[in-house]
Amino acid sequence: MTKKKNSLAPQGICVGILGGSRSDLPILQKAVDQLLSLGIASELRVLSAHRTPDQTIQYAKEAESRGLEIIIAGAGGAAHLAGVIAAQTHLPIIGIPMPSEHLKGLDSLLSVVQMPRGIPVATVAIGNAVNAALLATAILALKYPEIRKKLLHFRAQQTESILKEGP
Ligand code: RP5
Question: Helix (H) and strand (E) counts for the chain?
Answer without folding.
Answer: 6, 5
